[in-house]
Each structure stands twice: as structure tokens, then as C-alpha cells.
Design a protein that fits this description.
This protein is mostly helical. The chain has helices at residues 59-87, 124-132, 170-179, 183-186, 191-197, 199-204, 208-219, 225-242, 244-248, 252-262, 264-271, 282-288, 295-298, 316-326, 360-375, 389-410; strands at residues 274-275, 280-281.
């Protein structure tokens, strides 16, 4: 077996018999400790991590934002109402009642001689009597108010061309047959019925002298104006009761009669206005004009609107007609001067407060605004030209919708 020799001592043993390794010293460049592995300083200690508050969750900012929104809405609502009030006149009015005579106010050839009167367009029962009452004349001068007038016999009556049998009930048909033949109704010579549904009256407008006598007859009736007003109110009550089904079905003949009864006093007052400058009826003035645009204003209670392109004459007569009708849109017990001349005959109106006319409430506002735009700010009473119930509903819902839209954008 091989036994290795002992290792030699790396260093000679000292004299005392004990040996110790020499002391070693480690030197590094530039006396850097830890060379060649320099000591990396540890990062400074950080505070515990706490989330910074988000601006959107800052209670103060949220409170300020809510305050701004409230101020915006408070300022928005009055602005919306002001805007709706400024634009309310641009809202379309409800459609007027459509009557059977679309050319009610078309310009007609005016004549004053019997030979030139085209009787073929008049009903056979009344054309001969109407021509007999015409005063022959070779000129077309404006006729003055007669005193008295020679009335045509028979006097023009409503529904003289034809009376439809298309009624819902027999009772309503019998009512029409009775009241059109009743003496108390005929003696009142209703201008509202004549302008609305009389073929003889429309034909008579071709003759200034004849129509002048007829207008005088509507203003000078055997019964007083108050008595005729009471008669029409009684017939209106019967119509609303007996012809209720036809009214609900919007029978045009029944609607014409209802409007005629309702507007009797208002239209009688308007037809009897006189022009003191020429001692003529205002209606004859309008009929004899080169462009009879003023005639549209007389038919407002019948549901006939004034076209937007109409250019009125801006005469005192039209101003007086609008003043008369203004009382029946918003009644006022203290009416001012509504006439430019005295009414003829016994045509003074009732001292009681006028009742509003539903159809006139739809046609008067636009006519009054048109007259004011054409003739000046004091020409018509635009203050009574308030929007209808349907208009007010559209304005209210429009304001609500506009506020909601703007509020959504603000949010």
C-alpha cells in the first residue's frame, strides 16, 4: 500500500517551534471598498402607497358642477318661454271650416243695368224678381244708402239653390225645413246666412244697386236687432239639440247653419257699417273696389281666412270691421268706438256682453296681424289675437322638449 508523504510547510517554522501564516492585505484601486464589486446604494425608503384623490370624485368639484347645472337650467327655462312667445305667431293655425262656396269673395263683374245682368246663374225662382228691382242706370257710380230702399220680392234666402237631404236623422231634416220657412227667421234677413249659403245673394253682387238695397234690408228689419238676436239664439239651441248627430258627423250644411246662427249679430253689425265720406255702406265700398281684398274681412266669422297675399285698402271701413269682430274674440263690456259712421235702421247691437265666436277665434288672429303689418300697429287689435288651445299645447310641449334637449347637452 502506498502512503503519501506529508505536505511540506509553506513557510519555514520560526525558532519557537510554532508557525503562522503571514498576514495578507487586499488593496483595491483608488481604495474603493468592495472592488471589483462596488457597493450599490439601496433606494431610499418610500412612504406607504396611498391613492391620490381623483378630480371627478372630489366632493367640492361635484358640488360646483351641480350648482352650474342648476344655474344653467334656471336661466334656460325663461329663455325657452321667451323664445316660444316670440315664435308663437309663426305657428300654423288650425284649419278653418271649409264651406261649400269656395269662390265666395271672387271679384265679379259689377253692372247696374237690367240688360247686362246674366240671370242664367241665378235660381229660376228669384232671378226675375231680382232683375225687376234693379234701378236702370248707365253709369257705375257708387250707390249711396237708400232711404228707403225698394227691396226685392222675395228677399234672398239661405239654402235657396238646394238643401241637401243627407241628414243623419229625420228630426234634423225637419228642423231645416221648418226654420227656413219660418216668418220670424225670414224677417231677420240674416247677413251671415246670405253671405254663407244664398245663391241669390251671391248673384246679386253683380249689380251694385241691387246689392245695395239688399244690404239696406239686412240692416232694417221689421223685428229689432235684439229680437232677431234672441230668435237666432233660440234656433241655435234647437239645432244643437236636434242635429247633434249631424254636428258630430260634421255635416257641412248643419255646420253652415250653426255658424250662421252664432255670428248673426256680429255680421249684421259689420254689414251695416257706413262710410260718412261718401254716405255708402262699407260693404258696398269693398265690393266696388278695383281689387275687392277687403271683402275677405267680412267673412272671418264664417271660417273664411284672409289669404297671406292679401293687400287690404287700409281704409277706416276695414278697421271698423276688425274692431267689431274683435269684441267676439275676447268680449269686453266697455267697447270703444267701433264704427266710423252711424248704423242705419234698427241695427244697434245688444248692450249685453258679446259671446265669443269659436270660428272667429281661429280666423281673426291671422287677419289682424296681416292688417297691422300692412296698415300700421294701431290698425287692428292684435292683443286679442291669442293662440288657440291647440297652439298653446304645441307651445307648451315645444318648451318642454327644448328644455330637455338642452339639459341633456348640459349634463
Amino acid at each position: 500500500m502506498f502512503t503519501p508523504p506529508p505536505s511540506p510547510m509553506p513557510f519555514p517554522a520560526p525558532a519557537g517551534g510554532e508557525s503562522s501564516p503571514p498576514a495578507l492585505t487586499l488593496t483595491t484601486p483608488h481604495n474603493e471598498p468592495g472592488y471589483p464589486f462596488p457597493r450599490v446604494p439601496s433606494p431610499p425608503a418610500k412612504a406607504p402607497c396611498t391613492p391620490e384623490p381623483s378630480p371627478s370624485w372630489n366632493p367640492l368639484d361635484v358640488k360646483k358642477r351641480s350648482g352650474r347645472r342648476i344655474l344653467f337650467l334656471v336661466a334656460l327655462l325663461p329663455a325657452a318661454f321667451i323664445l316660444s312667445a316670440a315664435l308663437r305667431h309663426l305657428i300654423r293655425l288650425p284649419a278653418p271650416v271649409v264651406l261649400d262656396e269656395p269662390n265666395l269673395f271672387d271679384k265679379r263683374q259689377l253692372i247696374t243695368t237690367d240688360a247686362a245682368t246674366p240671370t242664367s246663374s241665378l235660381p229660376q225662382s228669384s232671378s226675375s224678381s231680382l232683375s225687376q228691382s234693379t234701378a236702370p242706370s248707365s253709369t257705375t257710380s257708387l250707390p249711396t244708402i237708400p232711404n228707403p230702399a225698394i227691396l226685392p220680392t222675395p228677399f234672398p234666402q239661405p239654402f235657396d239653390a238646394s238643401l241637401s237631404d243627407n241628414f243623419t236623422t229625420i228630426g234634423c231634416q225637419a228642423f231645416f225645413s221648418n226654420f227656413t220657412q219660418d216668418t220670424s227667421f225670414r224677417q231677420c234677413r240674416s247677413f251671415s246666412f246670405l253671405l254663407n249659403s244664398s245663391a241669390a245673394f251671391l248673384g246679386a253682387q253683380r249689380n251694385l244697386t241691387l246689392i245695395n238695397a239688399i244690404i239696406w234690408g239686412t240692416c232694417n228689419t221689421p223685428p229689432t236687432a235684439q229680437s232677431c238676436d234672441a230668435t237666432m239664439a233660440s234656433y241655435l239651441s234647437q239645432l244643437n239639440s236636434v242635429c247633434k248627430s249631424d254636428l258630430n258627423a260634421e255635416n257641412p250644411v248643419v255646420l253652415q247653419a250653426q255658424i250662421g246662427f252664432q255670428s248673426y249679430t256680429a255680421m249684421r253689425t259689420a254689414a251695416c257699417l257706413t262710410d260718412p265720406t261718401n254716405n255708402a255702406f262699407c260693404y258696398i265700398d269693398a265690393l266696388a273696389a278695383t281689387t275687392p281684398a277687403d271683402l275677405y274681412f267680412y267673412g272671418l266669422p264664417l271660417g273664411t281666412p284672409v289669404p297671406n297675399t292679401t293687400k287690404p285698402s287700409c281704409s277706416p271701413c276695414v278697421k271698423s270691421v276688425l274692431a267689431v269682430y274683435a269684441q267676439y274674440v275676447t268680449p269686453s263690456s266697455g267697447s270703444g268706438a267701433i264704427q266710423i259712421g252711424a248704423e242705419t235702421g234698427n241695427s244697434t247691437t245688444s248692450p249685453t256682453t258679446p259671446s265669443p265666436l269659436p270660428v272667429l277665434g281661429k280666423t281673426y288672429p291671422a287677419a289682424a296681424r296681416l292688417a297691422v303689418n300692412q296698415c300700421g300697429g294701431t290698425y287692428a287689435s292684435v292683443g286679442v289675437a291669442q293662440p288657440s288651445r291647440a297652439e298653446r299645447h304645441r307651445i307648451a310641449w315645444g318648451c318642454v322638449l327644448l328644455s330637455l334637449i338642452l339639459a341633456c347637452f348640459a349634463l
